[in-house]
Amino acid sequence: MSSPLQDAVDGFLRYLKVERQLSPLTQSNYARQLAALVAIADEMKITAWAQLEPAQVRSMAARSRRTGLSASSLALRLSALRSFLDWQVSQGMLSANPAKGIATPRKARHLPKNIDVDEVNQLLEINLDDPLAVRDRAMLEVMYGGGLRLSELVNMDCRHVDLASGKCG
C-alpha cells in the first residue's frame, strides 16, 4: 500500500535529479532516508506533511535512534528531512519547516593516538642517499620533536628559523 506522503517525496526526488542534478549516489541516499521517514510517519498515523510538528520530528528521531541508527546516520536522516521540508516550504506546500530547530546528535570525536618511541624510530629509519627521504625525515623530526600539527609544519617558512640561536620566530 502506497503512503499518502510518498507523492511529495517523489516530487522532491525529481527536483534533486532534474533541477539540482545531484549525483545518483546522493539521490539514492536521500531516497533511502526519506523512505525510512515515510515508514515512521505512517506508523505515527501522519497522513500529510502539513501535520508534522517539531515534537513529532523529535519523536521520529527518537524512533530512528531506538532502531540502532548511529549518531552520524541519524544526522544524515534529519538533514534529508530538513532539506525535503525546506523544498516543500519553497513550493508553498508548507508554511514553515518543523524540523528547522531540531538539534542533530553530535558525532563522537576521538583524540588521535600517540605513537611510541620505538614506532617513531622505525619511522625515521631511512636511506640517507635519497634526498627526498632525508627531507621527509627532517620534517618528521621537527613535527614530532616540536609537537606540531601537519598544517603548522607545512606553513613553516625557512625565514622563520634562526639556526644560530636555535629559535623560531
What is this structure, in a nutshell?
This protein is mainly α and 169 residues long.
Describe it.
The chain is mainly α. The chain folds into 2 domains: 6-90, DNA polymerase, domain 1 (Orthogonal Bundle), CATH 1.10.150; 117-168, no CATH class. It is 56% helix and 2% strand. It has 7 helices and 2 strands, in the order H-H-H-H-H-H-H-E-E. It has helices spanning 6-18, 24-43, 54-66, 71-90, 117-124, 131-146, 150-154, and strands spanning 161-162, 167-168. Helix 1 runs antiparallel to helix 2 (24-43). The chain starts with 5 loop residues before the first helix and ends with a strand.
Identify the notable features of this structure and list them briefly.
mainly alpha, 56% helix, two-stranded antiparallel sheet, 169 residues, DNA polymerase, domain 1
Uncertain ranges? none
In CATH, the topology of the largest domain is named: DNA polymerase, domain 1
Sheet having the most strands:
2 strands, antiparallel
**SSE pattern:** HHHHHHHEE
- Number of helical regions: 7
Oligomeric form of this entry? single chain
Overall strand count:
2
User: What fraction, in percent, of the residue positions are helical?
Assistant: 55-70%
C-alpha-based Rg, rounded: 26 Å
Q: Determine the strand fraction and express it as a percent band.
A: under 5%
On the 0-100 scale, what is the average pLDDT?
87
Structural class: mainly alpha
CATH architecture heading of the largest domain = Orthogonal Bundle
Q: Estimate the global geometry from the Cα principal axes.
A: elongated
Strand order of the largest sheet: 1-2
The number of domains is: 2
